[in-house]
Amino acid sequence: MSTVSTLFDRKLNILINIVGRNIRKSVVDFTAAEFSTLMATNFESVFHISQLAYPPLKASGVGSIVFTSSVSGFVSLKSMSIQGATKGAINQLTKTLACEWAKDNRRSNAVAPWYIRTSMVEHVTPDCYMTINRVQHHVGKGRCLNFSMEVLSNKEYLEEVYSRTPLQCLGDPKEVSSLVAFLCLPAPSYFNGQIVCVDGGLCVNGFYLDMIRRGNLAIFLICSCYSLTPFSLTSTINDITLAFP
């Protein structure tokens, strides 16, 4: 940070914290060392970098911090318990700094992506699986780098990702980078303490069924509003069915 301060005349306008690692294991299988590694890599690093960046950010007179979080900080994802915990910690740090450093005209926000179509995700071949298996054989299962390519090369898994994502597609890197760039600009100067999900709607997707074509949704609404049972609405149901073929 002293080098950065020297290069920029001891002033810093923008700090973008990008770091992330995961070890895919169930909770009961994690060792203390693995827990410490993930916490240190994903959370402690950005915490201390932010501490060190505070003086040059304050000296600039105006500044913006953008953290890279993840949807795992909002919803439960399989084999991402500790990684999700670190991202949840980043979310809270984002909010804390937004309040604590606001007096110095420092804004703090975060982006939380879902699966993004990067080269690491796209360029997957059977050789990747062979390499991963060899690494796991030597260093132990779960100790190798667990990139998204491990799961997105699985067609069934990818279809499951699509099914849980309302937009039914992966994100594009530009859809994340453009948001980060926007948060750093003067334009969103009143935007502070927010964690923006770039996830195609994953985090807001509850139990949703496309029933409008059969008229069921309209039927449920009528029953709810008038406290009537579907059996007493035979004629109405027929009308709705005709209205929504």
TrEMBL record:
* Keyword list, A-Z: NADP, Oxidoreductase
One MF term in the entry's GO annotations: oxidoreductase activity
Stored Gene3D superfamilies = NAD(P)-binding Rossmann-like Domain
Stored Pfam families: adh_short (PF00106), adh_short_C2 (PF13561)
The protein's matches in InterPro entries, at most eight in alphabetical order, are given as:
NAD(P)-bd_dom_sf, SDR_fam, TR
What family does the entry list? Answer: Belongs to the short-chain dehydrogenases/reductases (SDR) family. SDR65C subfamily.
What is the protein's name according to its record? Uncharacterized protein
